[in-house]
Every structure is written in structure tokens, then in C-alpha cells.
Write a structure and sequence with these properties.
With about 350 residues, the chain is an alpha/beta fold. The protein folds into two domains: about 230 residues, Alpha-Beta Complex (DHBP synthase); about 90 residues, no CATH class. The protein is about 35% helix and about 15% strand. It has twelve helices and 14 strands. It has a ten-stranded mixed sheet, sandwiched between helices. A four-stranded parallel sheet has the order 11-14-12-13. β1 and β2 form a beta hairpin. α1 packs across α7 and α2 packs across α7. It is globular, with a radius of gyration of 20 Å.
């Protein structure tokens, strides 16, 4: 029995009944999704971060279909989703003690590890690099799909490249419905923005993309500080200057500028703010966001999508606090405004 067959058999042996699922994606839907994936088709699936556009990660033609559907540059790597850390040895050439510690501490969960790729991993997954991004999601529908499929799923966000990531099945259908064989519905994403990415391929672990698992929590789990990305760091998803963007231009403004522009440009703007709308402003074009970072992140992309659909000339987003717990949100907002 080959390594990939063993992985599939192990996943099937777990069985769907062993993994709790929401009632939205039935066992029958999971079976249809697995059949589509094994036929080389694309399946959108929920994770706790955002919805992913899934393909069999060991099928280069299927992975290339992801790139075509998204309009994604061929050298932009995708993250491979796994059922558990036991599969790391199949995808990574080496697993450092740092990577093993992070996997034990944070998986399943919203953390991606960059590791030296195994020789069998297709170039289409890695963007031609010698590293691969790996993650074990916690969403029950994603885990049921991975258990039934038995292998790794390439799964970038299920949206056009550079646009807002989807946090519901409806978002995926609206943007990529014609490109996918099936959209598994797992409800609204619990976290709402993409995973943190830590490079474990070199001597020093480095944070390449912030997420809602913060740098301090990662450093505490390792008992050592994280390095920062450098020019020689691996390319990873979501790190282009402009990304996560609605079609309407976005500006990040402080509270004083927000008040001034709301007064002077009220007819042309939509607003995402940390405060209620002034009495004279159209409430349909104003979103009062949560003041707590986890709740803000959970609704961020959905709120930007709603404002984007209004046809305003510009979206104004009130700057969020400059504290560690808001780091990942500031990152996403800055890229959406670039």
C-alpha cells in the first residue's frame, strides 16, 4: 500500500460519525464533494477562518484549476489543509522541533506552518519554492471532508485573487459559483480572517502573516521570540501590498477625519466605524463595528462586502486601535486600502 493510499485509508477509518458536523453539510454532501475532488474538480469548503477553494493537492491539474478560477498568479503558493499533524511527514521533508511544538499547541486551528517540502509535493502547490504551507483546520465540516477524502486539500480562499475572502457559502456562490462542483455550507466563519503563517523552514521561526493567534501567543508557546519576515523569506499567501480588497476604493481614517468627511461627503461614501452613525447619515451606508477584536474580525469581510454592494464612490474605515490584539485586523485593512 502506497503512502497516499495509507493516508486515504486512515481517513476513511476515522469515519464521518467520529467528527461532529453542522447540519448544513450532510454526509451525502460530503460524499459528493469527495467524489468531485477525486475526479479533479473544485469544491468550496468552510474553515474556521474563511471559506477555501479546495482541490486534491497531489493532482497538479486540479490545483491549476484553482489558479484559473481565482485568476491567481502561478508563483503564488497555496496552503495544504490536513486532517492532523500525523500527516506532516508525508508533506514535509523535515519537521523541526519548533514546527512540532506549534502543531501540538495550536492544531487544529488558524495557524499555517511553512516547512521544507517533500519531494512528492507538486510545484503547482508551492509556487515552485522548496517550501510548503500546511494547516490543520478546526471547522467540523472541513474535518469531515478531510477525513472522508483521506489526503491533503489545496485550499486558498474561495474568491477572485486579491478580493475580499468569503466567510459564507453565499459569498462563494456569488463570486465563484460557476467554477466549483459543490459548495459545502458550514455557516458563517467563526474567525473571519485568514490564518497566521509562521515560517519553520529556517533556523529561526518567523511570523510571515499575522492572524488572530497573535505573535505573543506563538512566542509563548515556543519560549522564544519570533523573527520578522525578510526578503529571503518564502512567498506566502496574502502578503501582496494590495489584497483583501473590495471593488470600491477604501481609505483608513482617524476619528477626526472621519467626522469631517462624513460632514462634507455624506452622499458619496459608505462607512465602517467604531461608533454609531450621526443622526443625519443614511444608516444603510454606515456599519458600526464591534469594539472587541475577535468580534470585529469575524464580521469584517461580510461588512465590507455589504458596503461594497452599495455603489458608493468610496468606503471610509475608521482606524482600529494600535495594539497587539488588533495587529492582524490592521494588516488586512491596510492591504484592502492599498
Amino acid at each position: 500500500m502506497g503512502a497516499r493510499t495509507r493516508l486515504r485509508a486512515a481517513g476513511n477509518a476515522i469515519g464521518l460519525a467520529a467528527i461532529p458536523m453542522t447540519t448544513m453539510a450532510s454526509d451525502a454532501a460530503i460524499r459528493r464533494a469527495v467524489a468531485a475532488l477525486r475526479a479533479g474538480e473544485l469544491v468550496a469548503f468552510p474553515t474556521e477562518t474563511v471559506y477555501g477553494l479546495g482541490a486534491d493537492a497531489m493532482n497538479p491539474d486540479a490545483v491549476r484549476r484553482i489558479f484559473a478560477a481565482k485568476g491567481r498568479p502561478a508563483d503564488h503558493p497555496v496552503i495544504v489543509h490536513l486532517l492532523d499533524a500525523a500527516q506532516l511527514a508525508y508533506w514535509a521533508r523535515t519537521v523541526s522541533p519548533v514546527a512540532a511544538a506549534l502543531a501540538r499547541h495550536f492544531w487544529p486551528g488558524p495557524l499555517t506552518l511553512i516547512l521544507p517540502r517533500a519531494a512528492s509535493v507538486p510545484d503547482a502547490v508551492t509556487g515552485g519554492q522548496d517550501t510548503v504551507g500546511l494547516r490543520v483546520p478546526s471547522h467540523p465540516v472541513a474535518r469531515a471532508l478531510l477525513a472522508a477524502f483521506g489526503g491533503g486539500l489545496a485550499g486558498p480562499s474561495a474568491n477572485r485573487f486579491g478580493r475580499l475572502s468569503p466567510t459564507s457559502a453565499a459569498d462563494v456562490r456569488a463570486e465563484l459559483g460557476a467554477e466549483v462542483a459543490l459548495v459545502l455550507d458550514g455557516g458563517a466563519s467563526e474567525i473571519g480572517i485568514e490564518s497566521a503563517i509562521v515560517d519553520c523552514s529556517g533556523e529561526e521561526p518567523a511570523l510571515l502573516r499575522p492572524g488572530m493567534i497573535g505573535a505573543d501567543a506563538i512566542a509563548a508557546a515556543l519560549g522564544r521570540p519570533l523573527a520578522s519576515a525578510t526578503r529571503s523569506s518564502p512567498r506566502v499567501p496574502g502578503m501582496l501590498r494590495s489584497h483583501y480588497a473590495p471593488q470600491t476604493p477604501v481609505s483608513i481614517v482617524n476619528a477626526d477625519e472621519l467626522r469631517r468627511r462624513v460632514r462634507d461627503e455624506a452622499a458619496d461614501i459608505g462607512v465602517l466605524a467604531l461608533r454609531p452613525a450621526p443622526p443625519a447619515f443614511d444608516p444603510a451606508r454606515w456599519v458600526e463595528a464591534a469594539a472587541e477584536p475577535a468580534a470585529y474580525a469575524r464580521e469584517l469581510y461580510a461588512q465590507l462586502r455589504r458596503l461594497d454592494a452599495l455603489g458608493c464612490r468610496q468606503l471610509l474605515v475608521e482606524a482600529v486601535p494600535d495594539t497587539a490584539s488588533w495587529t492582524a485586523i490592521r494588516d488586512r485593512l491596510a492591504r484592502s486600502a492599498a
